[in-house]
Amino acid sequence: MLKKLLPHIASLAIMFCAGFTLYYFVLNPNSPLKNSNTNYSTLSTQPFFDANLTNENGVSQNLNQYKGKIIVLNFWATWCPPCREEMPELSQLYTDYKNKNVVVLGVAIDELNLVKQFSQESPVSYPLLLAEDEGMNLGSKLGNDKDILPYTVIINEDGVVVETYFGRINKALLETALHTLLPHS
Length: 185
What we know:
By secondary structure, the protein is an alpha/beta fold.
């Protein structure tokens, strides 16, 4: 009888380990992958500020326009479920902080028609920009050495990367990071 159960027990153990690994390293907002690059001084935001990306309506946007703002930069894709799940919280964050010199930008690693369709079906309050393959290169220059989506970068008013997050984030996590950057009243 034990010989018959052993393959089933082994299968369950493998599924449990795979599920735990997925949760711990990808879905968990406090995952150790969130802040693996602690030496942010090696990251340059110049390629970001030099870039011109298209918005979901096909209009070119010079990212230099965001200099001097606190930027929550979120790399995402329409085909990425965790990316889509975090967007309502990013939208709420943008609404709550846009009058405090904070901007949320969504950089889609996707095709224009898919981003446009997505934005019509699931509108967000923050600007969506299209980067396709260039976006992964831009993300890599900003610390995404694992090519993971979603990937979020916080850039302070001086244009310096102060925090990065691999995987799904939430509003509370971002507010904690923003709290240290905003003047206290």
